[in-house]
Design a protein that fits this description.
The protein is of the alpha+beta class. The chain has helices at 2-14, 20-49, 202-212, and strands at 61-65, 72-73, 79-80, 86-89, 95-100, 108-117, 127-130, 133-135, 138-141, 147-153, 168-173, 193-201. It has one domain (59-212): Sandwich (Jelly Rolls), CATH 2.60.120.
Length: 213
């Protein structure tokens, strides 16, 4: 019984109750997650009954911050601000991307956290692509400083075998870039935005629910 109560509390934390529409959407996301889990269990049972070893399922979340080593393109080296906060500038091209494994049986939300654009535009915006197809990305300025960019990875049916699964490629394009050299600094880099963290999957759902609580 205690475990059931804890599970209910965990699900409630993930629900976005900031509006009726968002509440319905977050409930639908929970239902989709349950259906996905049941489908995975059914596939594993079928494999076991047929005598085949069940393949390792793909990860359902992916989180990376600026301090980690990660498979990506379009980033400069790790830096820290005066408070020791890890961060990385994107550049020199306007594009930067992440390559990562994640289960895509159902749509996966993501949240990109960054501190600022080097060459800001109004309103702030980012172009997004998943596996070469353009997706909608909503950029929000945070009251405490910094930005988040939110979107959804579309569902994709991957092979059950780990060897046959393709990595997800999530690419962003900054509307403008700039160089500190143009402002008189001794720095020839061309900069886009100051990256902090990327949450994909349930991690992004939990982060969004916590922010709206």
């Amino acid at each position: 019984m205690a475990g059931d109560v804890a599970l209910v509390e965990e699900v409630l934390k993930r629900l976005d109750r900031s509006s009726p529409d968002k509440l319905l959407r977050s409930i639908a996301a929970e239902i989709a997650r349950v259906h996905e889990t049941v489908a995975q269990c059914e596939r594993r049972i079928a494999d076991l009954e047929s005598g085949a070893s069940a393949p390792e399922p793909p990860p359902q979340t992916w989180v990376v911050d600026a301090e980690q080593d990660f498979d990506a393109r379009g980033f400069y080296h790790l830096e820290r601000n005066g408070d020791g906060l890890p961060m990385r500038w994107t550049g020199p091209d306007a594009d930067f991307q992440f390559d990562f494994p994640i289960g895509r049986e159902s749509p996966r939300p993501f949240t990109l956290h960054f501190l600022k654009f080097y060459a800001p535009t109004e309103p702030p915006s980012l172009r997004g692509e998943v596996d070469g197809g353009e997706i909608a990305v909503a950029v929000e300025r945070l009251p405490v400083g910094g930005f988040v960019a939110r979107g959804v990875l579309p569902a994709r049916r991957d092979p059950l075998s780990p060897e046959g699964r393709a990595a997800t490629v999530l690419r962003f394009t900054c509307p403008k870039t700039g160089s500190p050299r143009d402002q008189g600094y001794d720095d020839d880099r061309v900069l886009g935005l100051l990256f902090r963290r990327l949450d994909v999957g349930a991690a992004a759902v939990a982060e969004t629910a916590a922010a709206s609580a």
